[in-house]
C-alpha cells in the first residue's frame, strides 16, 4: 500500500505544484489589474463604487484559497 501511495504521490506532485503556481500567477495578475484600475481612476478623477458584499466575499475566498493552496 505504501508503494502505491508513493507512486500516486510522485505522479500527482508535479500537477499540484503547477496548480499552485497557476493560482499564484492568477492572483498576482488580479492584484496588478486592481492596482492599474486604481491608478487610472486617480488619473481621471473617477471613483469606483465600493465593493458589494458579494464581491467582498468572493475576493476574500479567492485570497484565502490561493494562500491556503
From TrEMBL:
This protein's UniProt keywords: Cell cycle, Cell division, Centromere, Chromosome, Cytoplasm, Cytoskeleton, Kinetochore, Microtubule, Mitosis
Keyword Cell membrane on entry: no
UniProt entry tagged with the keyword Cell cycle: yes
Compartment(s): Chromosome, Centromere, Kinetochore; Cytoplasm, Cytoskeleton, Spindle
Gene Ontology terms, MF aspect: microtubule binding
Family indicated by similarity: Belongs to the SKA2 family.
Protein's name in the database: Protein FAM33A
Amino acid at each position: 500500500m505504501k508503494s502505491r501511495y508513493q507512486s500516486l504521490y510522485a505522479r500527482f506532485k508535479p500537477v499540484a505544484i503547477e496548480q499552485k503556481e497557476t493560482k499564484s500567477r492568477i492572483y498576482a495578475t488580479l492584484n496588478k489589474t486592481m492596482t492599474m484600475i486604481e491608478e487610472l481612476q486617480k488619473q481621471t478623477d473617477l471613483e469606483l463604487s465600493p465593493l458589494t458584499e458579494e464581491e467582498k466575499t468572493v475576493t476574500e475566498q479567492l485570497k484565502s484559497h490561493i494562500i491556503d493552496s
